[in-house]
Amino acid sequence: MHSRVPRTAVAVAVVLAAVSTLPAAAAPASVPVSAVVGGEQASDVVPFPRGAEVVGAGRTGFLTYLRDATTPGELRWTRYADGTSTVLPASSGSFSAGATGIVVTGDHVSDIKQSRVFTVHDMASGAAPLVVDTAELGEAGDTYTYRGAVGATLVFSVQKADGTGQGRLVAPGADGAEERVIGGLPADLRAFVMLSGSSHTAQLFVGAGPVDTSRYSDVVLDIPTGEITDTYPVTGISPYRTGAVSAGRVAWVAPESATSVVVGTRGTGDTRQFPIKAAGDRYGLVGNWLVSGPPTRPERESAVTPLTAWSLTEPGVGLPLLDRMSSLAPGPDGSLLARGGTVEHGEGLYRVTAGAEGEPVVELVASTGEPTALTYLGEDVPDVVDLDRQRSIGFRWNLSRTNVRFRLTFGLKGTTGTTVTLPDNDSALGPGAFDWTWHGEEPATPEKAAQPGEYAWRIEAVPRDGIGDTVRASGTVTVRRTPGAHDYDGDGEPEIFGREANGRLYVVSTFYRPGAVSWGTARVYLGSGWNTYDRLESAGDVAGTRFADTLARDKSGVLWLYQGSGEWMRSLLSRVRIGGGWQTYDRLAGGSDLTGDGRADLVATDKTGAMYLYKGTGKASAPFATRRKTGAGWGIYNDITAVGNVAGAPAGDLVARDKAGVLWLYLGKGDGTFAQRLRIGGGWNAYDGLIGAGDVNRDGRPDLLVRTGTLKLFYPGTGDWRAPFNAGGKEYVFTEEPAYNEVF
pLDDT value at position 212? Predict the structure, then answer.
């Protein structure tokens, strides 16, 4: 078995000395061509078509074939001298090329072996193509099957009219195409295929004799003489009919093992087997070295084995040539052309030749301009995100390829952040584009909205094929939010509170995403002892902090103020005493700006039905001015809720439910009083409570939440006083339904 070949950066145009123990890295002696740096092609290296594979070469240029979802099949010849290229007419797969700059195309749509008419293109000289029509060759009844070409000489197996087989060569002559019979093939020849060719030699796999007692051999054909020079008997037919031939050796896949290559020394009949990695590996011969490796493409996930040269004279000695290879083709004068890449010099076409001492030499001859190592190509990430105006924010990170394990970490700066899992990329957006759409959710708690502040992102991309280092990048995004009504932590979304019968209090998010509301799925425990209060009311920003505040009345009639903190995990600050005597009121409704001064106000109704206005001052020590009576007759209602400016009037509004279950709208006039009431509709006595929760769905209009048992309904505000709430509502249920006895 071969010794293990370590992963290493491969030096280009450097002599790779053979050693019994492989070095950690080859030290470059000289680099006569420029490298690919940062994904840009150097000016003195000719371009290689992206996405194409090498299928042939000559002394003046190379041949590529490109077929993808948008290209049915492009055959292109590119000159080494100046990079100019010529596209040849060829259907999918209906062509062949060797190592001489000659390209043969056929008239069949997809399989050149089924062609009848062939065109021989001399890409080096630019001479007029030679057209060969097999119907004009041989004798009547002869059937020609194309097997390949060596230079301008076409190789055919021929089934004669009398049933015998024959091999023939067809080449340009003074008066057009001339043919001759191949000498040295078995007299009982049944058929043969051409495995490979070099400048003057073809390698054939031959079958002879009856089908049930067939004999097989691998033979070498000398094109100038038309004679078989070497014959190597083989035991059977390999499913991988490939081969390689050079001036001194010939190679083919062993029929009994698809993972071994037989190498024969020409002129001696000696053969030896050399294991390769796996069935389907590409291989070729360069001097005293067998070059082999699996074909891979950089966009595919794969544990890539490098293209490696194995010594044919020192068993077990292997030298890495390229970090990866996708196609291999014979070149002139015993060279090989490999489409592949190295971490140092990137993707392109590399020539492998035998050095002065016979050792392999690798040279970059054409570049795609793409890096082989995973490379970061920058990001499309906003510097500032305004969550008041944006609901979906696109982030993109650009890499040179997509077969990576991609990890994104995102969170408030100074925290460890949260890992976001992105789906594998199928390259539909271009090589290496990893996209993430953020809807403004808290990274660590996706059921609630993100708070304003500076957020940090970090990405890590690990190449799945092991080629190149892990790529890392980081940056920051400033997130802006304006606190809204019923907003205690400054994330722009309303919060509500739920109190259990045992006095435990929770704050609950109402984070809205387009198409769905996730309210009640994220909550924080705030503490116990809240059953000492007989009335709790979210009052809007009455203390001037920009965040909503809560009023709590204890059983002795003292009213307390809990200011909003601007923090999710501690939504309320320590209480401040407002004053006593509030037990005279049976209803409190806070949160609407009823006086038009930009501050939330409070209304209270006593047991006689009188209503009093407490104008907000914006001072925590004395949040309300002296009360002012604004009306009477409010005792007919069993629930009164401040809903903000729900109907487009000059100031905030109230909704009130009477004892028959009819809901009424009171439009604020801006002076603490209200216009004549408007009937919204009946049936509202089915609900336990009404909550003016602010703008839940972020459409700029206040909304209404209602509750009964485990059912929560969200009624979006319309902005129309004639029908202030969208009929029917939308249903949402707690993920974990707590036993709240009060929600506010």
Answer: 84
What is the predicted pLDDT for the residue at 340?
Answer: 95
8 Å CB contact between 515 and 723:
no
**Token output for 536:** 């709790």
Distances (CA, A) of 369 to 40, 66, 346, 359: 5, 17, 7, 28
Evaluate whether 279 touches 291 at the Cβ level (below 8 Å). no
Nearest to 11 by CA among 360, 293, 471, 370: 360
Residue pair 535/742 in contact (Cβ under 8 Å)? The answer is no
Side chain identity at residue 737, one-letter code = E
C-alpha to C-alpha distance for 360 and 16, rounded to whole angstroms = 6
- What is the DSSP track for 143-167? EEEEEEEETTEEEEEEE-TTS-EEE
- Nearest in space to 243 (alpha carbons), one of 255, 251, 232, 234: 251
Query: Using one digit for the tens of pLDDT, what is the confidence trace for 272-297?
Result: 988 877 778 899 999 999 999 999 87
Cβ neighbour number for residue 514 with a 10 Å cutoff: 9
Residue 275 and residue 283 in contact, taking contact as beta carbons nearer than 8 Å = no
State the sign of the Cα–Cα–Cα–Cα dihedral 636, 639, 642, 643. Answer: negative
pLDDT grade, residue 630 (50/70/90)? Answer: very high
Nearest to 319 by CA among 30, 31, 4: 4
3-state secondary structure of 723: coil
| Distance linking the first and last C-alpha atoms of the chain | 77
Q: Find how far residue 516's CA is from the centre of its chain.
A: 27
Phi/psi at 595 (5° precision): -110, 0
Give CA–CA dist 52/90, Å, rounded: 15
Question: Each residue of 219-234: b (16+ CB within 10 Å) or e?
Answer: bbbbbeebebebbbeb
Both tokens of 590, joined, read 């806070």
CA dist 673 and 666 (Å) reads 9
Where is mean pLDDT largest: 251-265, 467-481, 702-716?
467-481
**How remote is the C-alpha of 76 from its chain's centroid?**
31
pTM value is 0.79
Task: State the DSSP code for 211.
Answer: G
Give which of 33, 607, 482, 17 is closest to 289, Cα–Cα: 17
Under DSSP, the state recorded for 249 is E
Strands 165-173 and 189-197, by their bridges, are: unpaired
The confidence score (pLDDT) of residue 518 equals 47
Cα–Cα distance measured from residue 328 to residue 323, given in angstroms and rounded to the nearest whole number: 14
Whole-angstrom Cα distance, residue 651 to residue 721?
13
Classify residue 484 by its DSSP letter.
-
One-letter amino acid identity for 292? Answer: S
For the purposes of burial, counting CB atoms within 10 Å of the CB of 4, is it exposed (0-12), middle (13-18) or buried (19 or more)? Answer: exposed
| Interatomic CA distance for residues 484 and 564, integer angstroms | 12
Q: Is it the case that residue 33 has pLDDT exceeding 80? A: no
